[in-house]
Amino acid sequence: GEEPKTLPDYVAWKERNALILHSANTMETQRGAIGQGVITSSDRLFVRNNLPAPSEEIVADRDAWEVNIEGVKNPRALTIGELKSMGVTTVASVLQCSGNGRAFFPHGASGTQWSVGAAGCVMWTGVPLKTVVEALGGPADGMKYITSTGGESLPDGIDPKTIMVERSVPLHALDTAMLAWEMNDEPLPLTHGGPLRMVVPGFYGVNNVKYVKNVAFTEGQTDAKIQASGYRVRDVGKKGSPDQPSMWEMNVKSWVTAPLETGRSGRNMIYGVAFGGTKSLDKVEVSTDGGQSWKQAQFLGPDLGPYAWRPFVLAADLSAGEHRIVSRATDVEGNSQPEGRTENERGYGHNGWKDHGVTVTVS
Ligand code: MSS
Hints:
Elements: E1 19-23, E2 26-29, E3 47-48, E4 66-70, E5 76-79, H1 80-84, E6 89-96, E7 119-128, H2 129-135, E8 145-150, E9 166-170, E10 178-183, E11 186-187, E12 197-199, E13 212-218, H3 225-228, E14 253-258, E15 262-263, E16 266-275, E17 281-287, E18 295-296, E19 298-299, E20 310-318, E21 321-331, E22 358-362
Parallel strand pairs: 4-13, 15-22
Antiparallel strand pairs: 1-2, 2-3, 4-5, 6-7, 7-10, 8-9, 8-13, 10-11, 10-12, 14-16, 16-20, 17-18, 17-21, 19-20, 21-22
């Protein structure tokens, strides 16, 4: 479709120049707007809506929003007001779309052509899901997944399963999942799932269900299309199906954020961001010769925990000419970004260092 030139109303509060507008429902942060700090400011954070956003009415009386908790010993609905009295925690985590980096796949993977900017590092505040579930007697016996349903109202005449945003994650995510009502120290904007969002730290964006209205502990995964055949990693040309890997835990990744086009001969500060998904980072290396030689970068700013990203910097002396600058992160378990891509039909989970580099002309 046609790319809009101006921001749609529901995101009019965003910083237009920091974003690449792919469509009214998809916009990414410009690589050069990511900055050198740890937290991505809300007005620069990417947006991805599989369905049109609900109306602002749902954030008019935030504390009255109800979430239904099912598949526990004592199922019931809880208001945000009640959740706020149960407990509170704050976690920094990277929110990244499963298809971030899709634009680099040569087979033309269908979907939004995200480059690097369908990602940001966000501070979430809310109640640990575990606290809520324990108050309701714990998960019912035999439950293996946490299934969250988005609060969009669905159009008539279409099988709801084919469009609804409902995602299942493995039960072990209960150790870290939370129901968040604040983002970056402000009430969670509607755009990012206000009044209440399921946050699963270290898991791809799609599992972080916005305007969450139902959380169910279930024996199996939901049969909603977005889970059953969507967000499944498979060979190019293949259809999605439940036996293929789902986009759950994120892999280790990094990219350079500056310089992007030009540099001056002599000392240049090379910046970027790196994260380990569900694991802390060990190191980030930077190469200014396309991966022939590497130097270890310094992390910048505070370490906000395993799910946050770490900005990094390397001071490099560059000579006149073209330089291919790439970065490669390694997590504490020794997993490093691969050089290449894992080719797959929908272009999910790309963390290869080669494609994510930049070519800088130094004069
Ligand atoms: N939720 C809901 N409810 N709806 C929708 O649409 N989407 C997904 C998530 N969640 C949705 C939800 C996705 S897919 C993503 S990325 C994310 O979200 C995004 O976010 P932001 O806030 O940024 O917009 Mo891919 O993997």
